[in-house]
Amino acid sequence: MNKKKLFVGTLMLALMLSGCTKQDDRSAINVKAHNNSSTKVNKKVVEANNKKENSRLICFNKKIKSVTSGILLPQDDGLKQGSSNLNMRFENNPDQSVVYYSVGESKQKFNDEILKKELPYAILTMRSNMTNEKMDKLIGYRDAKDDAGLRQIKLNDSITAAVDAGAGQQYLHFVKGNWSIIVHASSIMNQSAEKPALKLLNLIEKYGLPKTTGKSTIYITAGKSKGSLNNVFKWQLNDKYYQLDTHSLTTALKMLSSLE
């Protein structure tokens, strides 16, 4: 975590000096001749590449934080490609802040009106000034004890899920830490709820989940279509409610693991 904070801090300083322009990814790496030298070099290369790819994101984050204090924002846009054409727009009022992430055919200015016509691949929402009762209702946590009597399937050595199926629909539910996770699939469309559930668990193992101070939920709908935001993460952090909706599970976990 310290290395990550140091990296982000260094990046922010570079952006303040050079503005939202293409970053120079050249770096001086002094390598000593010992067994793990190649690993250290590889880490430096990855950091330099991430710095270059997410330069627009970091610049836009700075603009958002200048008007909204206390909001956590991803330092990784979660994209496999298209970071150079990342576009973002932002809606803000005293009770709610919403960030829309999209990839366009070309770069657009932050909050440009034309971005309302671009389909977002992710939407991050932060809400404040809410009662705990209202926050709990929005999060919609489901306890494992609510699954009594349902068929059980083992996902891995530590996770057992309950299956609720009927009318051509399947709902798979399990709990991991503070997170209640539901995967919805349509058996009519030959979809599997188990496959995305296993993918999610593998991604959590790789990237982790964001810090929470209350019950949290993940709701996944199997299958994708253009513009769909089928992966929904809801959690509480102190007095704030957060929600991330994404098109891709991998994108979601990359963004969530980089929140600062």
Describe how the helices and strands are arranged.
Elements: H1 2-18, H2 37-53, H3 55-65, E1 86-93, E2 96-103, E3 122-127, H4 132-139, E4 151-154, E5 160-166, E6 169-176, E7 179-186, H5 194-207, E8 216-221, E9 231-237, E10 240-246, H6 249-257
Parallel strand pairs: 7-8
Antiparallel strand pairs: 1-2, 2-3, 3-10, 4-5, 5-6, 6-7, 8-9, 9-10
Helix pairs in contact: 5-6
Brief description of this entry?
It comes from Lactobacillus iners. It contains six helices and ten strands, in the order αααβββαββββαβββα.
Rg is 20 Å
Strand content: 25-35%
Span from first to last CA? 11 Å
User: What structural category characterises the helix and strand content?
Assistant: alpha+beta
Coarse shape: globular
Strand order of the largest sheet: 1-2-3-10-9-8-7-6-5-4
Quote the average pLDDT.
85
Number of strands: 10
> Percent of residues in helical segments?
25-40%
Tell me the series of helices and strands, N- to C-terminal. HHHEEEHEEEEHEEEH
* Major sheet attributes: 10 strands, mixed
Poorly predicted parts: 1-19, 21-41, 43-48
Number of helices: 6
Q: What can you see in these coordinates?
A:
- There is one protein chain.
- By secondary structure, this protein is of the alpha+beta class.
- The chain has a domain at 141-232.
- It is 29% helix and 27% strand.
- It is built from 6 helices and 10 strands; from the N terminus they run H-H-H-E-E-E-H-E-E-E-E-H-E-E-E-H.
- It has helices at 2-18, 37-53, 55-65, 132-139, 194-207, 249-257; strands spanning 86-93, 96-103, 122-127, 151-154, 160-166, 169-176, 179-186, 216-221, 231-237, 240-246.
- It has a 10-stranded mixed β-sheet with strand order 1-2-3-10-9-8-7-6-5-4, with helices on both faces.
- Helix 5 (194-207) packs parallel to helix 6 (249-257).
- The N and C termini lie close together (11 Å).
- Mean pLDDT is 85; it is low at 1-19, 21-41 and 43-48.
